[in-house]
Amino acid sequence: MHTTYSYPKYPSRRAPELDAAQLRHVPVLIAGAGPVGLAAAIDLALRGLPVLIVDDDDTVSTGSRAVCYAKRTLEVLDRFGCGEHVTSNGVSWNVGRTFLGDDEVYNFNLQPEPDHHRPGMVNLQQYHLEEELVRRAGQLESIDLRWKSRVIGVDETDDSVRVEIETPEGHYHVQADWLIVADGARSPIRRMRGLDVEGKVFMDRFLIADIVMKADFPAERRFWFDPPFHPGLSVLLHKQADSVWRIDWQLGWDADPEEEKKPERVVPRIRMMLGDDVDFELEWLSVYTFQCRRMGSFRHRRLLFVGDAAHQVSPFGARGANSGIQDVDNLGWKLALVVQGKAPASLLDSYDAERVKAADENIMNSTRSTDFITPKSSVSRTFRNATLLLARDFPFARALVNSGRLSVPTYYLDSPLNTPDQSEFSTRMRPGAPLDDAPVLVDGKPAWLLEQTGEGFQALLFAESAEQLSRQQQQAVRRLASEPVPISVLLVTRTASAGIASPQAAEIAPNTSAAHDVRVLHDPDGRAWRRFDARPGTTYLLRPDQHVCARFRDFDADALMRAQRRALAMKTTEGASQ
Asked: What domains, with CATH codes, occur in the chain?
């Protein structure tokens, strides 16, 4: 088969622990250097923690595997320093089309609203993403990434985890405060601990064929029900980087996986779809069944499960890798604050609660998609086909068509870390919602709101201009910055500062990267103001994972500190549990 990608071989080195007399201690050990494990290591390193990450292989994953990365995942990757690479090297798209036979019955746009930095989706083969994450991890001195290192034993105590690691040179032990388990859907560590996943296995098989071809198809997701080139079943088409195209064929449960992967069976399928005049070469073939399952809990004392080790979904909707990276986005800031002694270990219970909810949402949507694509009875098939026929002419039926509801971020609306609204607001940026992006100016230069967030707890304060920040408010800003877990302030103005020349403005408005300076974000067109339903004084408190945890109509330092303590799973100064 043809290949467009040369797999790197990463060097393994002799572990110093093999020659050490004493047991090494690390704050965090990560098992698995796939996209989720690497993302976890980068996030923790950026938050100031040393990390040991081990993987039993010495290269990236074989085959394209996860392909579609959603807008929220791209925003998380931006924070890691990888988003631009993924976007510029991948295929961006927003439009998906669904067909019955040759006729289009439904289409959608993942980003109908303009003025967002990232597109709704970017398609990029998983091996490209992993290679970029390895490169980024190599830039961070606090990450110790070890290849050809397999976890073969885990013993847990109340305050640590003793991990045994096998290498070509021998075995050694490491003691970790926390173990992040990112070792995939078959998770050896999960099996070692006797932990199980529960859910549903779907009685169908699908063939993935990655082909290399020059084609003028648009960069859209295309899904066919009962096409003339594969009657009675379904087909999915995606464009990837390097002129590679992903085609998924539904095969049915009785198909023989080994037979269906043979080129002499695959090539005629492709010819029926594309025609005899299209030149292509096979790059990668795989036959899969899928399941929607999850562990009962993602936290087991000092073991924290992420990605496929914790939950699995069908590939329809691109929810696998996206949900795994968003697990890391949720976990990283909490674990960093716990390790640093700035938050109680009970904060990690909210990782379990919030990401179990996210997994349940993904499983529900993935199951519904799969049930629509592969009806389980003649009645279900009749309903499905009637819905597709009606969707040609009637808008109500188009909303029922389900060829894979695509990945969207979870809104943690019921999280105990949220402070309920005390004033009337629009429903868009509620506590628990991921932060909306918007174009802004920083030092007169174009920027994006999300680029300015994610470093820690931050308060978005909306004001007409920088000069209108009162002396009392300036004192409150300094007070917030001096908290044990600082809250920095981003001032979002509609009126440009008059050169930031007045003594008062100079005191609060310099745009620097220093830890607790107020940064002024100018919003000349009012897009951020509208998206946040803002008035002068409106304040949003943001978690380090760029989710809203509180919002107020007035800038009140005491209210912000109470909301932060609640978001840290701490008690308020009055002693009430928050």
From this structure: 439-567 (3.40.30.10)
pLDDT at 573 > cutoff 60: no
Beta strands at 206-213 and 244-250: parallel, antiparallel or unpaired = antiparallel
Let me know if 382 is exposed, middle or buried by CB neighbors in 10 A (0-12, 13-18, 19+): exposed
Indicate if the pLDDT at residue 508 is higher than 70: no
* Cα angle value 561/76/454 (rounded, 5°): 25
Taking CA atoms, 522 is separated from 390, 476, 486, 513, in Å, by 48, 21, 23, 17
Token pair of 424 as six digits:
């009337």
Could you tell me which of 242, 37, 9 has the C-alpha nearest to residue 133? 37
Tens digit of pLDDT for each residue in 15-32?
A: 999 999 899 999 999 999
The residues that bridge with 224 in the sheet, in sequence order, are 99, 235
Tell me the pLDDT tens digit for each residue of 168-182.
Answer: 999 999 999 999 999
pTM given for the model: 0.93
For 432-443, how does the pLDDT look when each residue is reduced to its tens digit (9 = 90+)? 999 999 999 999
The residues with which 199 forms a beta bridge, in sequence order, are: 293
Torsion, Cα 493 499 502 505, to 10 degrees, reads 30
Rg (CA), the chain: 25
